[in-house]
Amino acid sequence: MTAATLPIKRYTGVMDWLTTVDHKKIGLMYIWLVLVMAIVGGALAGAIRVQLATPGAVWEAVQAASLAGQGAPASLFSENRELYNQMVTMHASVMIFFVLIPGFVGFANYIVPLLIGARDMAFPKMNAFGFWLLVPSAVLMFASFFVQGGAASSGWTAYPPLSLQGAGQNPGQDMWVLGVHLAGMSSILAAINFIVTIANMRAPGMGWDKIPLFAWATFFTSIIQLLATPVLAAAVTMVLLDRNFGTSFTKASSGGDPVLYQHVFWTYSHPAVYIMILPGFGAISHIIAAFSGKRVFGYLGMVLAVGCITFLGFLVWAHHMFSVGMPTYLQAWFMYASLAIAVPTGIKVFSWLATMWGGNIRFTVPMLFAIGFISMFVFGGIGGLVLAMVPSDIQLHDTYFVVGHFHLAMVGGSVMLLMAMCYYWWPKMTGRTLDARTGTWVFWLMLVGVILAFMPMHLTGILGMARRVPVYYGDFKILNHVSTLGYALTFVSSLIFVAQLALSYRRKPDAGADPWGVNGVQQTFEWATSSPPPVYNFETVPPIPVADPARH
Amino acid sequence: MSDHTPSSGTAHADPMSHVPPGSIWPLLVTIPLVAMPFGVLSLLGVLKGSPVGPLADPQVGLVLLMGGGVMFLYCLMGWCHQIIREKTIAHDVVQQQKDLQLFVLLFLCGEFAAFGAIFGFFFHRFAQDPSFGPVPGMHFGGPLVALATFLLLSSSVTGEFAHHLLQAGRIGLARIMFFITILLGAIFLGMTGHEWGELIQRGFTPGALAEGGPAAFAAAFYTGTGFHALHVATGLVLLFMVAMRLEAGAFRGKRHFAAVAATWYWHFVDVVWVALFITVYVVP
Predict the structure, then answer these.
(1) pLDDT digits (tens, 9 = 90+) for A155-209
(2) N or C: which end of chain A has fewer CB within 10 A?
(3) How many CB atoms are closer than 10 A to CB A206?
(4) Architecture (CATH level 2) of domain B1-12+20-91
């Protein structure tokens, strides 16, 4: 052992955070970046909601004013409609690339090595690199607001020919593409790291059949990230080349095919929606089992269901584009395959309910969020079934029904999951318990806000309101006002939530190793070490219980 | 089990000895990753008239791009240097080798997915657009490409020889084989460049060709072969690093995974070229 000959340099203070390769510190940095970005992305959404709540957004009012020879009634983007498109695009990009995807990566970073009894990730430096990559990515995306023509404005899907507009003059779209490249690189590196960590670094005796569900879900999600993200990079690169290098991948006028871009894009982006929710599916099993005082119902079924969603997720992308024109047999295939995903998802939902069934349920804040997630996600999922069916999708395509559906699934689903995970593991991660009363307020505000904001969108969509358009007919006014009210509640609850997390640092660590008192039921390793855990996680790994940890 | 996995049973005398030291490189390497995209945008001339005006000067762009590139390579070197230094304090090198093997395999899976998108484009267009292909009479392909392909395939064989010779401890022969592999790869790269130059001279560019199938094919051709050439260049850098370390006296013991990884990557580049060769030259 030559350790003595080579002095190990240990940094302290700020330098310690800047140079850290500790998965716990990196996880916390991810989570704080995500919290900040969530507020930024939420503010961008606020601009959209304010526009849609002002009189100037109502088409009849604008029309009447112009007939009477008066100026149009005020609205936020009446002077600059292009800016509205930028808001829509950047809200989506921030929420997807800087909140939902890295959010789960952050929690997985902190928790997964603890769950499997490892000291760190397999490649600690690459792990740090994956986090820091998000910074140049964010710099590129946000700097694009300040260049000529402003930020990207063709929606987060960047469909050509829309995304080819302003080529050679307005660099916003190009900066967006380069930002996506960097975020994608971060995603791929994190995915490889998780797969290697989970495959190779489990504690002695933890076979594949004993891996806790959150680690399993992270494993499958990483497979999606690894195989799908390069395809996204290829798709947006086609746009970049077409804009700047005279190629014609997506230009129909010169031998390219814009529909092919959509196929390539959704080959990534449909699996990507599972990147944004699958890890939470695993984590929620821990939370529900812990606060029901029972074993996870159907461990094997849960694992297989996640695997099944992973596999099917790669085969259904074209249900996003039924209306671009494709042969009927393809439409039928994509419709049936999409509907088939409801089966493994249903297995998961019913297994969670069965876990709660007859249990000794404790309504702690994480449990509230878990139950809120299940109810909201079921509604979001049913909207998804409506959209998976070709006849109804062709009617509802590009209306607010679609917006309502995926926001219910992403905010009612993924965001609720992230908040449940945060309340559950925050005492472990920082050593500080969170006040249950504030947490309960956050939960109810959030739940009511989500219902008010996104349920009415289904109706406005069925009535025919188009998405991404800042002006609408007067019939949709009341529903839009309700949505904006719901948005306000959601945003306020998010602010309280972030404040609660920030203020918790003022107190001294007060959480014991097992603050929820769950270790009798939920014998996962993270509760066996101190809160927060020491740098080396465990001095010795606790022996795997006779009945294995994953199922308890 | 891994170095990072604590053993059950008695406590380690000093668990801190398992904790790897911090590293500044992952943070530093993000600086060129900001600088280089801005350099590219500046060189493309799209930053003109923006509040970031001074950046729009192509000279500034060139400095950003080149300086960023140099700093990127410097950071990578620093990073590798730290890893090589830390090997001496690592606890379980055998497990690390297993981790790295899986890493390289997974990374190549991701690369296959990226190339898959390119092949997907080619075959989608072949199926949809009969005019998608080279213009007849342009002498597309030919003996030079066949020779280049032969050389690249041979280099894969010599690379494999090098790997096995290294395993057998026959350092002298391994050095020669690595040298031949690098030489063949460099010749391939040069031939690709020559081929590009010839084709551009003959007017095989998206701009010069009739809009439609031929122009789209030319664009896809340059993108596909260019992306592949980028991988050949990366593979050459990896092989070169291995050769340098071999000269410096590394890999004399049982462990030489860096060499194995470089040859794996090289085989991957080779396999992709065979597929690309068939797609670009044979199918049309």
Answers:
(1) 999 999 899 998 888 889 999 999 999 999 999 999 999 999 999 989 888 889 8
(2) N
(3) 23
(4) Orthogonal Bundle (1.10)
Render pLDDT for A235-262 as a digit per residue (tens, 0 to 9). Answer: 999 999 999 888 888 888 877 889 999 9
B94-282 adopts what CATH topology?
Four Helix Bundle (Hemerythrin (Met), subunit A) (1.20.120)
DSSP A362-429: ---HHHHHHHHHHHHHHHHHHHHHHHHSHHHHHHHTTBHHHHHHHHIIIIIIIIHHHHHHHHHHHHHH
Amino acid at A462: I
8 A C-beta contact, residue A397 and residue A319: no
Distance between A124 CA and the closest CA of chain B, angstroms: 8
| A20–B contact, CB cutoff 8 A | yes
Percent of chain A at pLDDT > 70 equals 96
Cα–Cα dist A499/B228, whole Å: 49
Tell me how crowded residue A335 is: count the other CB atoms within 10 A of its CB: 19
B208 and A CB contact within 8 Å: no
Contact assessment for residue A287 and residue A370, using Cβ atoms and an 8 Å cutoff: yes
The domain segmentation of chain B, as residue ranges, is 1-12+20-91, 94-282
Q: Which CATH number applies to A23-528?
A: 1.20.210.10
How far apart (Å, rounded) are the C-alpha atoms in residues B96 and B88? 13
Read off the pLDDT of residues A269-306 as tens digits, 9 standing for 90 and up: 999 999 999 999 999 999 999 999 888 889 999 999 99
What residues in B contact A113, CB-CB < 8 Å? 4
Task: Tell me the helix, strand and coil percentages in chain A, rounded to 5.
Answer: 70, 0, 30
Residues 6+ apart with CB under 8 A from B19: A22, A119, A120, A535, A536
Structure tokens at A396: 């509802």
| Rounded Cα–Cα distance for residues A522 and A545 (Å) | 11
Helices (H), A201-257: 213-244
Say whether B211 and A257 touch across the interface (CB within 8 A).
no
Angle between helix A101-115 and helix A23-53 axes, rounded to 10 deg: 150
Q: pTM to 2 decimals?
A: 0.92
